[in-house]
Specification:
The complex is a heterodimer of chains A (147) and B (174). Chain A is an alpha+beta fold. Chain A has five helices and six strands; from the N terminus they run αααββαββαββ. Chain A has helices spanning 3-13, 22-30, 34-46, 78-86, 112-126, and strands at residues 50-57, 65-71, 91-97, 103-109, 131-132, 137-138. Chain B contains five helices and seven strands. Chain B has a four-stranded antiparallel sheet with strand order 5-6-4-7. In chain B, helix 2 (39-47) packs across helix 3. Helix content of chain B is 33%, strand content 27%. Chain B has 174 residues and is an alpha+beta fold. The chains are: A alpha+beta (147), B alpha+beta (174).
Chain lengths: 147, 174
């Protein structure tokens, strides 16, 4: 990444205008032009420096439901349980973490009631308890990765 | 916003938060914003409304929080931020609202949530995702949170991720 790429990555994390020619506006701020900015964003996405660029939607406010769930799975049974959990399309992300609570996944469903249904199903299939940890409040500011 | 029935959120004055056109805009942009000089006009053509309407609706969704923001999401691994630790804190319930925003405002914290305890096994009620270039940097950030919380820190842990078992984007249907 050269200095312009870095400036683009930093600037685009802060937000993008809703206007007729938003790329031209941001390009002017960064001392480049619209064409160059669009080309650079494409290259940053293609090269994997950026994972996406666009509106970040808030699932619950669109009418869906989201929760974070955790399980305590014995090491010898971990792979079996991971396969069973991941088989549910409602499981959006699943991470192994170093703790006695060692499996952490996000459930995303169309309605809040479906969260309970999926949790019940996972408990039944795996034989282990699922700890539901929905967010009660969000203190969201948004991370910046300065480069 | 009030919760009325499963899956239906309405604003307090009773208007549905999202109509069919909003949903069409969401579907047209959830993969990202087009790389053309007039991206909102391109979305408008796809959805079949005017560019002005798309921009007005997206501004409204920004205000209502349906859109958190329009921005780039960096791959933090690619940028050298290879370590992430989920720090979890046991703080007094009556102090969460005051302390949560202060922890969330720290530059190295990406998400900060108040979540329920599951006693006795899980005493933690404040979650803060901490990113760093390595574990030492994450640990230093966690120490900074501990200093900020002071006496309100009744115990904490850092859960490092060791493996991604599944990762898919969140999607909405039509």
């Amino acid at each position: 990444m050269d200095p312009l790429d870095r400036a683009i990555v930093n600037r685009l994390q802060d937000g993008f205008p809703v206007s007729e020619r938003p790329y031209a506006e941001v390009a002017a701020e960064l001392g480049t032009n619209e064409e160059e900015l669009m080309r650079r964003i494409d290259a940053l996405l293609a090269g994997g420096t950026l994972t996406r660029f666009g509106p970040m939607y808030h699932a619950e406010r669109m009418g869906g439901a989201l929760t974070l769930a955790a399980m305590q799975v014995p090491e010898h049974d971990f792979e079996r349980v991971a396969v069973l959990v991941n088989a549910h399309p409602e499981v959006a992300h699943n991470y192994a973490r170093e703790h006695t609570f060692n499996m952490w996944f996000v459930l995303a469903t169309e309605t809040p009631r479906e969260i309970d249904r999926v949790i019940d199903a996972i408990e039944r299939e795996t034989g282990y308890r699922v700890y539901d940890m929905p967010k009660l409040e969000e203190f969201f500011v948004g991370l910046r990765f300065p480069v | 916003m009030t919760y009325t029935q499963p899956g239906v959120y309405v604003e307090e004055r009773g208007q549905p938060l999202l109509d069919a056109t909003d949903r069409a805009i969401i579907q047209a942009t959830q993969e990202g914003l087009p790389r053309v000089a007039r991206p909102y006009r391109a979305v408008a053509e796809q959805v079949g409304v005017s560019a002005e309407d798309v921009m007005a609706r997206m501004r409204r969704m920004l205000v209502s929080g349906v859109i958190r923001r329009i921005a780039a999401v960096p791959n933090h691994y690619a940028l050298g931020y290879r370590a992430n630790g989920m720090s979890v804190w046991n703080v007094p319930d009556d102090e969460v609202r005051e302390l949560g925003p202060r922890v969330g405002a720290l530059a190295f914290v990406s998400h900060c949530y108040h979540r329920p305890r599951h006693l006795p096994r899980w005493p933690y009620n404040l979650f803060a995702m901490v990113h760093g270039r390595g574990r030492a940097e994450v640990d230093a950030h966690v120490a900074e949170i501990a200093r900020l919380l002071g006496d309100a820190d009744r115990g904490h842990a850092v859960l490092y991720s060791t493996r991604i078992l599944k990762k898919t984007g969140l999607r909405i249907g039509s």
